[in-house]
Amino acid sequence: MNLKINIIQNPYYSLEEEKVANLMGKIFASRIKGYQRPYGDKVYPFGAEELCASLVSVCKTLDNGIDIPLMSFKFIRNSTCNDFKVHFPAWDTLMGSGCSNDLKDKFHSTKNHFIQDYGDFGYIGSLVLSAEIAENPRLRKEVKKITSLAIKNISQEQGPLPLIVTGTIHNHSHEYIHSLGFQYLSKEEVSVKSLKGTKTYLMALREFNPELNFEDVQHYWDYREVLDKKRELEEVA
Predict the structure, then answer these.
(1) Domain that holds residue 93
(2) pTM (predicted TM-score)
């Protein structure tokens, strides 16, 4: 199976591009189906930040050249959220969750330390796998490792960047996130309204787990395809 990493960088600027529109539609359809499996219909796994985020997918490429997402996630910086006047996703979740003031204080304290030490921080979210790999353990293991590589590299390619995320409890995604190096800011359970109240933990990362080894999948990152209309426009200007 031919696998590759695709990155749609800031689709706000490139929705009219046919390849961007097609791949983005497939990513969103896969996300809906992925969340419908555990939560049923009428879930809404999207935020206001979708069009200004980076949408990352590990895809299989068909013989006709069409890419089909097997696993995907989004990445966005807090500074980008500020530029577009949208809430940072993890904070948006906290505001609608009815969580304690203590947890909100921990978020703000962590955020302020990250800005002081690094100048910015980021978010990884909407991590979803397709039904195809959910039922194929060997393929799931490989795609998951490629995804971990992409999570690390896209968030760190411009220098060290801390992250704040929410890790879902029922499907053990918080354990996967923890294995990457994220730490729990609290064991207070946070409800996600748009996902029918599913419970998550608030987690943060300063450094990735140093024991992570991606040598055997590094070539997928080296040959990733980046769709970035904004950069093209800036280069022309």
Answers:
(1) 3-236
(2) 0.94
